[in-house]
Every structure is written in C-alpha cells, then in structure tokens.
Design brief:
Blueprint (H helix, E strand, L loop, with lengths): L2 H18 L6 H10 L4 H7 L4 H9 L8 H15 L62 E7 L2 E6 L4 E3 L5 H9 L19 E4 L1 H6 L8 H6 L7 H8 L3 E2 L7 E9 L2 E8 L19 H14 L7 H12 L3 E3 L10 E3 L44 E3 L4 H5 L2 E7 L2 H6 L4 E2 L4 E4 L9 E6 L7 E4 L2 E4 L19 E5 H9 L8 E4 L3 E2 L3 H17 L8 H8 L7 H20 L25 H26 L5 E3 L2 E6 L29 E8 H11 L22
Parallel strand pairs: 1-4, 4-7
Antiparallel strand pairs: 1-2, 2-3, 5-6, 6-7, 8-9, 10-20, 11-21, 11-22, 12-19, 13-18, 14-17, 14-18, 15-16, 20-21
Length: 711
C-alpha cells in the first residue's frame, strides 16, 4: 500500500470514528428495536463480541458502547429501524393537527386551536380577538367516523361501521380525500361543546395503497424517516390539488388538509396498517384482519374512546385535550361579538415551563450541568412505579404457591380525583406542606419507620423488612432529602409522621383535569369487559370463573380491550415524552416541549398515587392477616399462598373483602388474578437467574427469558 493510500484510509477511518460518536437512538428505542426483531440480549452481545450485561446497560441508559463496538451497534440499530419503523408520532410526537388554525366545518361553531400543534397563520373564519364565534347546529355523520378502503374485483370500496359498504369513485388520492369530506359523510361529533368534530379517518389496505400509488411497504430510507420523500408522485398530486400535509409528512398516520376557507374546515386522516400504524403490541393482529372485521374493531374503539389520532399513546393524550379544549367562545361583548378565551379547567393554549426538579435529563433547563453529572434524589423528582422484590421467608417457602394479583387500569384509577396543576409552578422556600396543593416538595422522609405506622386511626406494628418503602420505586428506605410529588408526601403524613419540606414548586392554579378522561376510559374498559362476559358486581368466585378464557370469547373485542388499556398507560406516559429520533442534543428542546400537554408533574402525580394506592392496600392486608408481598411490579403484587387462587389468601368474610384492601372485581382499582406458580418454580428460577429476580415479572406464565435487569 502506498503512502498516499495509507493517508486516504486513515482519513476514512477518522470519518467512520466520527460517525461512531454520533448519538444513538434513546435507550428505550434500542430495546424496542431489539424486541421488535425478536432478538435476545444474548444474541446481540454474541454478534458484537460483548457481554449480555453490557447490552442491558446500553438499553437502560446506564452506559454507552465504545468504539469499535459503537459503530457496529449503530449499524445494527439502523438496520432494525429500517425493518421495524417506529410509529409516526415518534418523529413528531404531538398528535397531528393542521399546521394552521382550522375554522369550523360549514354549519358548526368555529373550532378551538389545535391541541398540540401551534398555528402558523391565522385562519379565516376562526374565532379570534377581532372576529366573533358563531353558534349553530352540529352536522350528523350518517356513515360513521371511519372507513376501511379496499379494492375488490377491480373496484374501490369503503367498509363503514355498521356493515355499510360504499362504492368509492375516486381514481386518485386527492379525489379520495375529496370524497371522504363530501359524499362519504364520515366523521364524529365533538366530545366537548368548545372542541372540534373528529375528522374522517380512512384506513388503507394494501390493495388500496397500490391502487392510489402508495407503496405497500416503506423502503429502508422511508422507514428510517417515517414518511414518504417529498418528491414522491402522490405528494406531488396532493400539492397540485392544493392539499397540504402536517409537519409530520406522509407516514403511517397522515393528516391531509386545506387551510380553512371561510367557515369550512377540510381535513382527513389516513391510517396505513401495512406501514405499522397499528402497533402489534396494542393492536395484536388487527392489521391482518379482513376489512369488515377491522372496521368493526376500530369502530368499537372509536365509539368508546375517540377516533384514533395516531398510536394509542397519542390518542390517549389527544383525548385529554378533546375533553378539555384550551379555549372557548366568550360571552357577547357590548357589540354582541364573541372572543376566544381560556377554557376553565384546561391546560391552556401555550406550554408552561416545568420546575427544574421535574425536568428529565437533557432538558434545556439543565443545559448548564456538567456533561456526565448524575442527579440524585435531592436534585430530581423520581416518581415511578414499583419494581421491588425480596427473598422468601422460611414460612413462605413452606407454602406451595405464589399468586399474583393485578390492579385493573391502575394508572386510570390513580388519575381519577387527582388534583393537578393547570398553570406554571411557583417556587417557595420553607413551605408549610399542604396536601391539597399539587406540586413537588423537597423533604426528608427517612424518619418514617416502615414497621410502625398509623393505619386507620391506630398505630400498628408491622415487619418493615417485608414491605417496600412507599417512597421509592425500588422500595428502598430514603436516606435523606428528596423530591416528591404531593401524594407521596401526603401519604407520609397519613402514616402518622411529621413532614417539613425545605423547598417546593407548587401550583396554586389547579383542578381535577383528568376526571373526565378517566371516566371515558373507565366506561370503555368496563363496557368491553362486559361484552367479553365479565360484568361488574360479580361475586369473587363468579368473577374469577368469568375471567377464565375471557379473551377467547371475542378476539376482536380482546384487541379493543388491549388498546383501551394502552391508551390509559400511554397517555400518562406521553405527559413526559422524551426526545426521539436522531439529531437531538442534550440541552436542546425537542418537539414535545412545545405542547401544553407536556406536563411531567401531572405524570408524576398519577404514578405517585398509583404506587401509594398499592402500598396502602398491602399495609392493610399485612396488618389484618400478617401476609406480606414477596414481589411488586407496577400494578402486580405476588403473595405466597397455600392454594393457587387469590381467594386462598385474600381475607374475604361472607363474600366481603377487607376494608381498604385488595378486592376482586372488574372495576378499575380492583384486582384480577394475574397468574400462579409453585414455590419450587420460584426457588428454581432465582437459583438460575439470581436472588434479585422480580417474580412479579414472570408470574403470569412462568417463562423467564433472560436474567432480570429491571428493564
């Protein structure tokens, strides 16, 4: 090799090394890609000539790969991303809405501004400070909220809710959009008088994609981008017809609109299941259903929740805004004109800054921190769900079974009645704690004795070593001052201990923002369970019997149930959405920060309430029966039992549960049987995988796929 060639090769190696230092996908995305491909951590480690523990650390964010493994790992992730493209909202997290402020459809009141995507220009006919809102009737959507568009016998047809099948005369995608807004009579009425009606949703089958010039599968480059390229022929067709796309572009969930003209708003949403619009984790097998069955499934979800606006997480977040629109029309002024004003009880139209302690790592508020600084409990709010386990006692080892019980819709139940801030936080030094005031509090709770608690109105002695602390996700007892959400500090006072915060970020403007959201999702969950043969009010033994094989009674409704549950959990998670995709740098803002519903404090309050609710029930059970959990994972608790049924250890008397304890039933906050395994199974898996294995993670079917690393 010549000297010149050596110099060239060295320069290329330097470029490759530079690329290797570029940011990798976020840790959660690395794990998602691996699991989507069905790969184990051991397989990835073997391919990269690394250790499985290292791969686990890369996926949990505890460490980063170093060259030369970093470049190889980046190449693997890039290939997986092309194959298993994330959903559209992962590239533009906020629920899609027109880039301009839409006015109302003809004959309806002007819409409020989009919940999450700020307007780029005023829209004609929309309510503003100079133009009044008008009131009139809401149109009816005779053919339902959505349609699945397919091609049969060479003709395009649309399957609608209720068994209706429409002929579609459209020969191009722009014509299809026009048809959806006119002849199709698709859409759904608003959920709040000040909100917007739901736009028509068209679900395109593979055959429909081919007919209208769309690819059946996204290419590698399109999958990485999450959208079609701007020079695609179909996008040119839309542009010539004066249709626009939101900033998200044309991806698995695409919104096509025209700027509002007068009092008419024109917007259609497309869903492309073949592009992974219906995530298999939450819509198991839905994308493979025939059109008539798919429209029934999506129609049921829509009638009980709302027309999907993206993934279940995006829809969960959008449901909050639909039930609490940011603005409303004011009362007429002296000239009889109405104005746009903030809707009481909403989060408003503009994002608010979080408190520094509530900001996740990488947030602009933390840009001045040293690069590798690790914040501790006294610097950051860390309200997360339980992930705790302990060794079995000798007495528990003599019992034959371990039984898991799972709280129904735990985060939904925790959201119900939660008082959360509606505006920006206010900083206070040496505050007096107020359990009715939402916020984040810096307080030392290390003096709370887990073996001596006030239960009801009586002090009780418990074995504190057999219970997780209510103040930390890992169940460890606090060692000093830490930031907590209001429900956690209030629980310390409930247990009989003084609390003396030294600092707080509180929100005097507050309300029960999530109550309506919870009620709608609660009703959707209960109605779907009833359709599956599990009704409210069943006696404990009848409830357990009804739960046996309930998903098999109607597999499509079982998918709806899964989607409803994912809407609850995903909606809460979206309140603190982290950066996604390449190009982001720590200390710089990311798109989710621009929406009013980016509220990590609300997420923290809900998770705090869920964890406290779980601890309160475990304490009541321990005080009444001397039984303690051996493992807790989020909303699942595992107990040692002489028999395999929850009724073998839950203290029912004459069919009535322990007051304040776990109660079997279908309603949110009540519990169901998660699964049972033998004590011998527990001993065997812990001997193989380590004593710290969280048994609650595997109690359902007993299968342990890898050593438990808490991820």
């Amino acid at each position: 090799m010549s000297h010149e060639e050596q110099l060239l090769f060295s320069a290329v190696d330097a470029l490759l090394e530079q690329i290797a230092q570029d940011p990798l996908p976020p840790p959660a995305e690395r794990k998602r890609l691996r699991e989507a491909a069905g790969l184990s951590q051991d397989q990835v480690a073997k391919a990269l000539k690394s250790r499985r523990e290292s791969v686990g650390n890369w996926e949990s964010g505890r460490s980063e790969p170093r060259p030369p493994k970093r470049a190889a790992y980046a190449r693997l992730l890039e290939g997986l991303a092309a194959r298993f493209a994330p959903e559209a909202e992962e590239f533009e997290p906020e629920p899609a809405a027109p880039d301009v402020l839409p006015a109302a459809r003809e004959g309806e009141a002007p819409a409020t501004e989009p919940a999450t995507e700020p307007a780029t220009e005023p829209a004609a006919g929309s309510a503003s400070a100079t133009e009044p809102a008008t009131e009139s009737r809401t149109p009816r959507y005779d053919h339902g909220p959505l349609a699945v568009v397919d091609v049969e016998g060479g003709e395009v047809v649309a399957y609608c809710v209720g068994g209706l099948v429409l002929d579609v005369p459209a020969k191009s995608l722009p014509a299809l959009v026009e048809w959806a807004l006119g002849e199709a009579r698709l859409g759904a009425e608003r959920l709040h008088p000040s909100g917007q009606d739901a736009d028509p949703l068209l679900v395109l089958t593979e055959a429909a994609c081919e007919r209208f010039g769309l690819p059946v599968r996204l290419s590698r480059e399109e999958g990485l981008a999450g959208r079609l390229p701007e020079d695609h022929k179909v996008l040119k067709q839309l542009a010539r017809a004066e249709w626009k796309l939101t900033r998200r572009g044309f991806g698995p969930w695409a919104r096509i609109y025209r700027p509002a003209r007068g009092a008419r708003r024109s917007c259609v949403q497309l869903c492309v299941p073949a592009w992974n619009a219906l995530d298999v984790r939450h819509w198991n097998g839905a994308s493979q259903l025939p059109p008539a069955e798919l429209v029934r499934l999506l129609g049921t979800y829509t009638s009980r929740v709302m027309t999907p606006r993206g993934s279940t997480a995006v829809t969960g977040l959008e449901l909050m805004t639909s039930l609490h629109p940011p603005t409303r029309a004011s009362a007429p002024d002296a000239d009889g004109r109405r104005h746009r004003e903030r809707n009481p009880g909403s989060l408003g139209s503009e994002p608010v800054e979080c408190a520094p302690c509530e900001a996740p790592d990488g947030h602009p508020l933390l840009a001045d921190l040293p690069r590798f600084h690790q914040r501790g409990p006294a610097e950051m709010l860390f309200e997360e769900a339980y992930d705790w386990a302990r060794p079995l006692t000798d007495d528990e080892c003599l019992k034959r079974h371990l039984v898991g019980i799972d709280v129904n819709l735990a985060f939904g139940a925790a959201a119900n009645g939660a008082v959360v801030g509606l505006e920006a936080p206010v900083h206070v030094n040496d505050p007096a704690f107020d359990p009715a005031l939402p916020g984040s509090w810096l307080v030392d709770l290390s003096h709370v004795d887990p073996s001596h608690m006030l239960i009801g109105k009586q002090w009780r002695r418990l074995d504190g070593d057999l219970l997780p602390s209510p103040f930390t996700p890992k169940g460890d007892r606090p060692e000093g001052p830490a930031w907590y959400a209001t429900p956690t500090v209030a629980y310390a006072a409930e247990l009989g201990y003084e609390v003396a915060p030294v600092e707080a970020w509180v929100r005097p403007a507050n309300g029960r923002y999530l109550d309506g959201w919870y009620k709608r999702l609660r009703d959707a969950y209960v109605a779907t369970m009833a359709d599956l043969g599990v009704d409210e009010g069943l006696a404990p033994d009848a409830f357990l019997a009804a739960m046996e094989g309930y998903r098999d009674r109607d597999p499509q409704l079982a998918v709806v149930l899964s989607a409803v549950k994912a809407t609850v959990k995903g909606g809460i998670g979206k309140l603190r959405e982290r950066p996604r995709g390449g190009g982001w740098r720590p200390g710089k803002p990311w798109p989710a920060l621009s929406r009013p519903t980016w509220r990590p404090d609300i997420r923290a309050a809900v998770i705090s309430r869920a964890r406290i609710n779980m601890h309160r029930k475990m304490v009541r059970l321990a005080a009444a029966t001397g039984q303690y959990p051996v493992a807790v994972l989020s909303d699942c608790a595992v107990y040692a039992s002489d028999g395999p049924s929850p009724l073998d250890f839950l203290p029912y008397r004459d069919g009535k549960p322990l007051p304040g304890g776990f109660r079997l039933g279908v309603s949110p906050g009540m519990v169901k049987h998660e699964g049972s395994q033998t004590t011998l199974w527990a001993e065997a898996v812990r001997e193989e995988y380590g004593p710290e294995l969280n048994l609650a993670r595997y109690i359902k079917d007993g299968a342990v796929t890898a050593k438990d690393d808490g991820e």
